[in-house]
Amino acid sequence: MARCGSGGQEVDDIEDLLNNGDAVRSPPKRHILPKKIAPRSKGEQKEHAARSNNSSSNIPGVQSIYVKTWGCSHNNSDGEYMAGQLAAYGYSMTDDAMNADLWLLNSCTVKGPSEDSFRNAIASGQQLNKHLVIAGCVPQGHRDDSALRPISAVGVQQIDRVVEVVEETLKGHTVRLFGTKKNEDGQKSGGASLDLPKIRKNPLIEILAVNTGCLNQCTYCKTKHARGELGSYPPEQLVARAKQAFEEGVREIWLTSEDLGAYGHDIGVRIPELLWQLVDVIPEGAMMRLGMTNPPYILEHMEEIAKVLDHPRVYSFLHVPVQAGSDAVLEAMKREYTRADFEHVVDFLKEKVPRVTIATDLICGFPTETEEDFKQSIELVEKYKFPSLFINQFYPRPGTPAARMKRIPTQDVCMLSQAYGTPSGLTYH
Known about the structure:
Helices cover about 35% and strands about 15% of the residues. By secondary structure, the protein is of the alpha/beta class.
């Protein structure tokens, strides 16, 4: 992460901020929203209490569950929803992995190291004879993986059925639920219901996923294989969820998705319409933060986006990943915009929203990147001195077009990534 060397305000990336402290802890009862969960009878409650200390019991709902999540804020929101449903049903959520009866491992497929960590956790759980349920983008995008097939799995649009999967897994069965939620018109929807029970890692922050999937076909991206095509929630459902969160004491709404700017293209709505409806329900003293948006779709709404970012109850922050400062590399990545498009976004927002903070990402060592391409990226960094700059080494993701391209030697990629630390006034770590 890059920080302004002159003492500028630090801005954590919405996609990475929640990586620390992955275990889900049981919060105060007000953060568990027991909606659509059948209550136990008095007899069941007595039986639950009598058996709650018996970890070997096969009675559903009495075992302890350890949840670990990797990846972006969308994935963290999914993890919070799954933990909330399990807690509402009666399971004990714990951060003590060794003594938990079942591990729920919620994965990320963006980078090789995060997927490796997920697979290592599976191996550890198997060595400890833990019941395992896997979730997130890795099992969704690798449904035919022989190493994952024997393990129960919850698809990214099936998180509302996590209780069923956990119950059956604790009985010794393997259950794998993948599938796409659809709306009344038969189109892909945003996913599971937004009013499910939820345990927030931070009780003051509601992470609100407005859509899933995207409209792009980036050659390096594996997430598309898991999240698929764009599926948006209707504005009224998102506004209702925001109202509910504020009523529960939340002070910040963080909007998230694979591409915020693409919201609504599938349902005939555009992102400014949603943003203004959400602004209308933000109470005094509360704030909203926009998530990551790719340049192609924000270009359609620059005036409205600038007005939203300048609103007193909206953080003047936007994460717009450029990924490369060279048009040749952007074309090889199939990013569907040029460097000039990105610069227009940054220049426009800086002019219209004087206090705006623009965060961006760069991929270092993409297979087609030449020395000249690299110099153009360095020039872009020098020009804008982004207060938040996330530099990622290229990782070939299996099944993507970029994985079939000839790679730049690893030692050369490391040297290139270190060179980003040379622009004056910026430090990287």
